[in-house]
Amino acid sequence: MSLEPNSAKILHIRTMSGSEIVVAADDVRDVRSLKQHLQSKGEGSRFRMLLMHGDRLFKDDCSVLELPTDLQMVSLNFADTSEDQVGDLMEAAFLGSVAWLEELLQRPQDPNRTLPDPLGRPPLRRHTALGAAADGGNAKAVRILLEACADTEGCAASESDEVPALAQAAAQRHVQVVRILLEAGASTESKGILAGIRVTPLLAAIQSYRPQGPDEKSMEIVQLLLEARADPNFVGQAPRDVQHDSRPLVAACQGGHLEVARLLLEGSLRGDVLPPAARAHVAPALVVASSKGYLEIQRLLQESAPTVLEISTPQQMSHLDSFTPLLLAATWGHVGIVRLLLEAHADPHTVYGPDGLTALSEAAAGGHLETVRLLLGRQGLIP
């Protein structure tokens, strides 16, 4: 075996198909990095490779200096795997136990195996180790599983939820995992069920699990997804109770949001006059303000449209069966995400469901002043 200096060493690797791959020893450190190099050339997962010279097998930590210049590459089939071993792989992935994960994948074990339901029900669609790693936010585990050729559309699943890894990472605000999965080609439009709602990764990022709505991590994820061409106008289907009127002014008055109501009225003025379409909203808003005892709002409405005599009542609780990322972001009042979606050409004029809700009415109902201002500005109602 030649022990020529590393800088002059050229490795010749013979594949099972009979072709030869030539690698400069300077390009790799050890057997593991050599396998990674071969994987980048399309030779499959490094976990299924063996590198040999005659009967001698070289382990991953073997230095390139110790390798002969001619090697044989063998590609292994996946080993038989028990349900316990599949469960172990998912647990290692969720916990981010890199050493345990490497050990299991070296068997080699199929990273895309799923577990049957313990009660004998139809198996979950694609609940895989990659979904578990994404759920746990373990970037190293995600990278290792992708090296093992894990399906990027593998799901994280529970008894009621099942979402692709990218959507789960987005919902959990795992920014680095989202970035890795996007780089690996995960679909921005894969759909799943999260908390009973049909979502894409973009909707999952906005919906999140946080009672107070999206935070700055969510906003960063939204930006990453939009840069990856996620559809800002996707319409999801889910039942949802709506406890406010679909008209922005009425919704703002129901919530007692004085400054939002003032802004909406200012945005409706044509000169110093409210046009008929806007005045039609003042009457039900006035009824709401009066019935709830919001005296300042009542005074504002009376000053804005003193001649309104029409009697009307707000709509009752209704049922919404469609929504988009913009509606969801407006509901949370996350002005940064709303701005990103509008810049990505989300349509602020879209009407949602049979009740006629809009992003503006949702923002108004929540009293989200800056979001209302942004939406009015985009619609050309205020400068």
TrEMBL record:
<keyword id="KW-0677">Repeat</keyword>
<dbReference type="InterPro" id="IPR002110">
    <property type="entry name" value="Ankyrin_rpt"/>
</dbReference>
<protein>
    <submittedName>
        <fullName>ANKRD17 protein</fullName>
    </submittedName>
</protein>
<dbReference type="InterPro" id="IPR036770">
    <property type="entry name" value="Ankyrin_rpt-contain_sf"/>
</dbReference>
<dbReference type="Pfam" id="PF00023">
    <property type="entry name" value="Ank"/>
</dbReference>
<feature type="repeat" description="ANK">
    <location>
        <begin position="321"/>
        <end position="353"/>
    </location>
</feature>
<keyword id="KW-0040">ANK repeat</keyword>
<dbReference type="Pfam" id="PF12796">
    <property type="entry name" value="Ank_2"/>
</dbReference>
